[in-house]
């Protein structure tokens, strides 16, 4: 470890020591979501199951609840439910990463846990350089930095060149990187390597102004390219899409294309872009294939530049969290997302209401209240209008005539009501994961997902149902808590 690295890690530890009590006393601190101990967490990084253990690294600024020179924080888990916080994996100590060890991924290279990440560098005039770097570990805990493996920008691209996602296919290593052309189009660039160290640029596989897309953003962040069943999927976070009706309402988007990857040309032949999540806070997701062959996605429950400086937790020294892990499957060209089965282990104290009638407003169900819970709602008869009020702070509304599902909340800064919506033909089921200050809603078995933060009065624990009815639903509720 270099002296500079030691110094930065010590500063981070001091920041944790100094702010921990204040952070942990915040009633909005989450109970079953991954957070940084203090400061700011953004993208999930290096998501992998390695020798049986799940590793989740994350973009972390330990120094303050705002962006800056990022570290890689690190959690491990045997079961996706109980997580152990590990020592800092990467600190931005070297010349090639001095303004941040930015996002990247993990693979097993020659039996070592190997991180690929972007070294972000800014000079005194604010000019950016980006280096794709490697760090390796034998024990999965301490990493040995080997510096840049790609230190040149490809021709025609700016220094907005980051977030390498690496995988192995047919005996070759591939890397997809988020990039921006000199005329400000977002692209996903493909690299290839025989040994994981010596990389060749193969060209863009998809991007703005590349068929079938026209205008499609000025930068693509965090691309992730993988196969699912017999299809290819490209998950990406494009910046610069204009809002269109119910779509693209957040400052930046995160979504996917389904298609077919031709690694030789190279080109990803794909259909239309669809958002992965309809909620307010979701960005920069990353997937991994675990040892059971499941494709598991975790996202950042936040969006860059979207009122980040107005989150109520900032005054307590922390901001943001990651989403729960979701297993991906394809139905046709549509991604279906379901919470990892393992999360059932968090359940306790089942309350069940078989086929209750909701007719009118503000109906509470006995035992269905709290701040940290899972709710499963199966619909046997739907009314023209159905809603669930969450702790007086947010509402889920199905409008059968308009065929829309709406998530409405009070904005955490100005307290005005704001909404996100999607088209929904029919409402069959809702599955809700509520934490102290977050909502993850899975609709009709994961056909649609809404992920958002919300900040209800901590003592308001009311869940109320309403319908212009009648509607008939079965409701099951569990408290969610640590399993050991
Ligand atoms: C996405 C992102 C990445 C970058 C990282 C920096 O949220 O902007 O493109 O690597 O965050 O923290």
Written description of the protein model:
5% of the residues lie in helices and 54% in strands. The protein has 484 residues and is mostly beta strands. The chain folds into two domains: 3-339, Tachylectin-2, Chain A (5 Propeller), CATH 2.115.10; 344-480, Exo-inulinase, domain 1 (Jelly Rolls, Sandwich), CATH 2.60.120.560. The strands form six sheets. Strands 23, 24, 25, 26, 27, 28, 29, 30, 31 and 32 form a ten-stranded antiparallel β-sheet that branches. Strands 4-3-2-1-20 form a five-stranded mixed β-sheet, with helices on one face. Strands 13, 14, 15, 16 and 17 form a five-stranded antiparallel β-sheet that branches. β27 and β28 (417-423) form a beta hairpin. The protein is globular, with a radius of gyration of 22 Å. The model has no long low-confidence stretch (mean pLDDT 97). The structure holds beta-D-fructofuranose. Residues 42-43, 59, 70, 102-103, 118, 162-163, 221-222, 283-284, 304 line the site of beta-D-fructofuranose.
Mean pLDDT over the residues: 97
Strand residue percentage: over 45%
Task: Please identify, by name, the CATH architecture of the largest domain.
Answer: 5 Propeller
Number of strands: 32
Helix content: under 10%
Summarize the structure.
The protein has 484 residues and is mainly beta. Helices cover 5% and strands 54% of the residues. The longest helix has 22 residues, at 3-24.
